[in-house]
Amino acid sequence: MSHFVVGSQPQPINQGLDQIPQPGQGVPQTTHAPQGVQPAQIAQIQQQGRQVTGQQPLRSLGPTISTSTQALQQATAQWQRTLPPQGSMPKTIGVTMPPSGQTVQLDGKMVEHEINALPGNQRQDAVRDMPRVLQERVDSGHRVWEGVSNGTLHGPASLEDVRDLMTFLLAKGMEKGDGFSEGAFNISDPDHRLRDFLDSSPEVYQRPSSHIEGFQQAPGGSHRGIDVRGNVTLPYGKATLLYGGINAGVQGMGENRLFLKTEEHGCRLSSRWTPNRDPNMHPDRPARFGDIGQFLGHATGFFRTVLRGISGGRLFPNAKDSRKERMPGDVSKDFKAILKGLDRSGKAEIAGILRQNDPLATSQGIRVMVANLNEALARQDLDQPTREAMQHLSSKLSTRFDHLDVRIGNEVVLSQDELAGPAPQQAVNGAMRAAVNSLLTIPDRAHFTPDKVESFVQQLGKIGTRLDRAGGGDETSAMIRTALEQVTANLTPDQRTQLQDILTAPQCREAMAAINDVMAFGGENLGPMNPTARNSASQIAHKISHAYLGLCSQAGLPDEALPRAPRQAMDLIKPILVRAGSDAFLSTAQTSANQEHARQIQQGGQQVGLMRLDTIRPLIGRGVVALGDHMQSIARGQVDHEQISRFFATELGHDVRTPQKGEPAGLGEQFVKDFFRNGISVNGQHFGGQGSGISETAKREALQAFIDAAGGLPSAQQIARVAHQGLMGMMSQACMRDPGLNPLFMDFSMHGGTVQNAVSPNTGQPASMMLSVITHGDSVAVHCETNTQKVNDVDGNDQVGSNLSLNFTIQGAGSDDPVVRLDDWDALFSSCPN
Q1: What span, in angstroms and rounded, lies between the C-alpha atoms of 300 and 320?
Q2: Highest mean pLDDT range out of 107-116, 264-273, 500-509?
Q3: Helices (H), 263-383
Q4: Last residue of some domain: 522, 557, 591?
Q5: Around 489, how many Cα atoms within 13 Å sit in the side-chain half-sphere?
Q6: Cβ neighbours of residue 568 closer than 8 Å, sequence gap 6 or more
Q7: Tens of pLDDT along 203-231?
Q8: Would residue 727 count as lying in a domain?
Q9: 787 and 613 Cβ atoms separated by less than 8 Å
């Protein structure tokens, strides 16, 4: 049986320098930069930072990446890199939505209460396990909804079913840009199947409710409650689910729907006062002692709600992301202003049209308001000011909300198609609507604060993430165009002017310039990342830029060049793209998990040694993977990852400071030989590789072109000291020194057969080593890779392959004291049938 073994993957350093220093290393022990730093100190501080990160032991820079054979666990390890210390939840957690496989970022606070309820010594492990737990709940919630919807699941509904269903619904809301920490759902429920399933819970009881009161008077419209208990809690620590049917034909509703809302306290002791009790329901679940506390808590919450209404929201205000079924205050204010104007001018007939069916009632809302506005706007006797005011409100509603025919207020509305798994176009439409609305809430560019810029870029990032797996360039361009046309179709002239002002604000254009920089560097300037995640982040950056430029065009702005991106703009967009890329990677890894075994078997019959590592790893995952008969297995833990990493870091740190023969007048002799043999890529452009038979003039020109691309001779000299075929010897030495890798390396070395090398993407020819560098400021990221297969001419004998790679960064390149930071390394040995 043949095996793959993975080498070390030191954890990428995504933290700022203020999070890394250890006592005694010469960097002030503060969590914030000192005030009043003078320009003369900046170079010294930068050098101190390079020394700290370059000299820091690998153990203190973070645990090494998981070597699990399961792609899902590998993806979870990628997510773990963002974890803050001491078990606190990260801001978001990526999950994939069934059945589409689209990545959604769930709010970490959804489950923070569960972590805080654990003993302190259990919290860190629980945080690390939470991505798996949330994914399982979302998957389970989808299965519940799917089974109920197709009639194969009837109950009884368990408390876990209720929790998972609400987790799934929250994820669906976040998928379309309608997430919230407190709010309500208004979802399609043909034949009341979901209501009936929830009614089957042994914990259900009927209860009074102040929500959508008009629907409670219909048969089967009474509201119900299900209180969770024990180890089961609802998202955001809520303790009860309130739900009730919205019947077709009642209050003008055209279809059967279901209202759902999670609340902090149950209401079992109020059951006897339930209006219009449903006689078809089984008896309320028995009362318990704990219901007293729940009743008092509910009464207090209701009192706060009353005070909130009386004070106009100044007391006990709703959460910023509240998505309740109440009419939004600004919409109600605009509507009342129109009515007041009509009343003053004596236009009672038009005012009567707007007032019919009472749009401001708790069960009517936006759906009735839109219908009334449309009827009034169809009249020919409207004066221009009244028409403009009504059109402005109508435009605001159509731009801000979807599902206007069934919407009551600001709740999350989901159709059957959306619940089943929205097409990417639907998700992009929702995210685009949220992005445009985030700008329309800003009065002018002076109020476009960094947090609002971040929110706007995050919304565009959701679009990019949804499109990351949707198809090619033409397809994604068409989807962005369709979303833009739909969202901007009803903008008023004032709204277009407002968008123009915000989109051309310096802070917005600088953020987009930083996005373009990420595109130009292929994501390398985001810092160390999983290669697949980095590629996704770069692709998402491209789609963000596409969406921004399309929005500018729809707003009537000319195509103008972007400014240079300042550091603060890159600092703002970098975590957004790192998170988006990591979540896209998580989605890919989870989607492929079920196919992994088949892919491993398929790889067993291929010449893996002739493939690139970034092609192989996404297919086979990390760890030891059995494929054939030749290579021998090694037990997990036999490879000393940290010892090998220290060896690389020490050797590279020494070499980058040690002049080679030929310096300082030129480049090192060893590098020059390899330069004309294989060449080197700088920022995506290939230099060298022409062979040594060219003229001396041509050689000097080729080397000078590399020096210029590398940022000058000092930087080029330091690159030349470490980026040459001597790295192959260093990697071989590391394999021979390690007790775990030594048998595999020696087996490959002693095996007979003709040596064949992988084809370089730069030259199209086999290359014994491929070298590339990316420059960014005073840092140079170096990647080297060698992929070799020994092909035996004798039938029945195995072929063996070796794949080695090394990634490191020269910090302070070109300075007198550069520092090398090891980013990752990988070693893979394989065999396949001849």
Answers
A1: 21
A2: 500-509
A3: 290-310, 329-344, 348-355, 366-377
A4: 591
A5: 9
A6: 450, 510
A7: 999 999 989 999 998 888 999 999 998 88
A8: yes
A9: yes
Give CA–CA dist 689/679, Å, rounded: 4
The tens digit of pLDDT for each residue in 522-578 reads: 888 887 777 778 888 888 898 899 889 999 999 889 888 888 888 889 989 888 888
Q: Render 263-289 in DSSP notation, one character per residue.
A: ESS--GGGGGG-TT--TTSPPPPPP-T
Query: Range of 449's domain?
Result: 423-591
603 assigned to some structural domain: no
Q: Are residues 467 and 355 in the same domain?
A: no
Report the distance separating Cα 707 and Cα 715, nearest Å: 8
pLDDT-derived band at 440, boundaries 50, 70, 90: confident
Domain endpoint, select from 353, 382, 409: 409
403 shares its domain with 453: no
| Whether 440 and 403 share a structural domain | no
Are residues 501 and 458 in contact, defined by beta-carbon separation less than 8 angstroms? no
Q: Around Cβ 315, how many Cβ atoms within 10 Å?
A: 12
Distance CA 709, CA 681 (A): 10
Q: Is residue 665 part of a domain?
A: yes
Task: Please say whether the beta carbons of 507 and 566 come within 8 A.
Answer: no
Look up residue 645 and give its amino acid.
S
393 & 446 share domain:
no
Alpha-carbon distance of 288 to 205, in angstroms, equals: 13
Structural domains of the chain, count: 3
The residue whose two tokens read 């080397």 is 703
Question: ∠ CA(96), CA(97), CA(101), 5° rounding?
Answer: 70
- Distance in angstroms between the alpha carbons of the first and the last residue of the chain: 14
Give the C-alpha separation, 408 to 394, whole Å.
Answer: 15
Q: Is residue 357 part of a domain?
A: yes
Q: Are residues 349 and 478 in the same domain?
A: no
